[in-house]
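I have been asked to look over a protein record a colleague put together. Alongside the sequence sits a line of tokens, each denoting a local backbone shape. Please read both lines and tell me whether the tokens look consistent with the sequence. Take the sequence as given and treat only the tokens as open to question. I have pasted the whole thing underneath without changing anything:
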Amino acid sequence: MRTATITRKTAETDISVTVNLDGTGVYDNQTGVGFFDHMLDQLSRHALIDMTIRASGDLHIDDHHTVEDVGIALGQALSDALGDKRGINRYGSCHLAMDDAQVRCALDLSARPYLICNLDLPFGKIGTFDTELVREFFQALSTHGGITLHIDKLHGFNAHHIAEAAFKAVARALREAAETDPRKTDAIPSTKGAL
């Protein structure tokens, strides 16, 4: 079973993340940040990764530390669950349409973190959620998951649709990359022999 549990406790947040890469997209995410929980649910459902997240943070200040630290812990959990990455596809991509929004994601589970995030969200808030935190989450996920992650908005004017399309596109690309290749189940997907 490709599973992992990460706990992270700081003076700002207390977080627990459990993932099962071979799940069916069952989720139970409670961070105290409503829109963010909705995005994490989308990530789980569309990646087919079972995900349970519990987070409490200094929301009386703002949502930043909670969102970023969940990204850190989730990235670490994904990395742990992938292990040595033997047999995985490694690469994944998705063009995802959601109403007015179209977002493209391409990623590499390379252990070389790098983020390109061109979402250009048109408003500063989605409800009470700061839209700049979308990038902060993906930066933390990329860095601590060892993921080369490219996310580009091709179209869109509704901030909710753009953000949700981004999470869903990342999810579908992650699903493809983390799945095992039946022709290479014992091989590391690199000519280096290690990732």
In short: Residues 159-178 form the longest helix (20 residues). The mean pLDDT is 97. Residues 101 and 156 are 4 Å apart (CA to CA).
